[in-house]
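Lecture 7 notes: from sequence to structure.
We start with the chain below.
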Amino acid sequence: MLESLALAQFRSWARLNLPFDARPLAIFGANGAGKTNILEAASMLSPGRGLRNATPGDQARQGPDAGWRIRAAIGGREVETAAPPGEPRSVTIDDKTLPQVALGGLMRVIWLTPAMDRLWTDPPESRRRFLDRITLSFHPDHAAAALTYEKAMRERNRLLKEDSRDAGWFRVLEAQMGESGAGITRNRLDAIARIAEAQRGAETAFPAANLTLMPGEGSADDPDPASIAARLAQMRPRDFAAGRTLTGPHRADLGAHWGPQDMPAALSSTGEQKALLLSLILANARALAAERPLLLLDEVAAHLDAGRRAALYDEIAALPAQALLTGTGRELFAALDGRAQFLHVRREGGISTAGMEG
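Predicted structure tokens for the same chain:
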């Protein structure tokens, strides 16, 4: 459980210290007051670049030549992640320096942002990133497999662009991509199966989605290392012409259909698409109940009517999870009265201030 969060020079916050308890925390205030920045800081307690997919320099309050620091207490452990000026992000847990992937084993973080409302109509890259975040919540080693795959693919792409004909080096790289790519695909397929199981039989006001791993092109849904490597070798002539790798798990797409008519998510209304997203987020949290995940829900009330907002808050309050929610007004969280903490974030004289309310 996230017990406290302290920010220094992160985004709009020069300093901020927040305690947490088991109740949901509803953060409200005007646009630009710094609400999302709090959620982004919490998202940096997981591997990767956080809910905005930002570089460390872009997250510094005083610009790319400055730095920032985030400290947290998680389940009695002391965690710090920081980005000194001009340096990559570091992670320490109980004063021991560790790779970012270690954060995945400490706390499972799930988030939803307004940009994700376009998930079903955005390019496949957005859906892959969404699926990989879900997958990472179940498999903390998924990030390491993705890094291994991407490193080998970058080297293979370099050889393709240079028109290198070193068949032996290609075989080595393609074998590495086969092993790590098969692990990526197995993890993704397992995550989809867990989401399906968590949706099955759940009493919820949100529609269940039927998810599929769509191959896009080539071996994007192939869990066999030898098969992936063989297809990469077979595709070399075409890849030479393109100057890049055109087959593999980096080309996968996430498909979603729902309802009796098996409606594709991309053809659904804006409200239905948001409801489908929330269904997946809730199923992800439900499947991770034993881990007590942290839910970060930015502007979560957008595109939801009062009835569906109330249903969402009922489900959040019943989940064995922590939740941080943002919205522009306290009235958006009226259905949480008596069940949540409320944080009013104000911007006064260019300095953000916050006060906790019961």
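Points to note: DSSP finds nine helices and 15 strands in the chain. The two ends are 20 Å apart (CA to CA).
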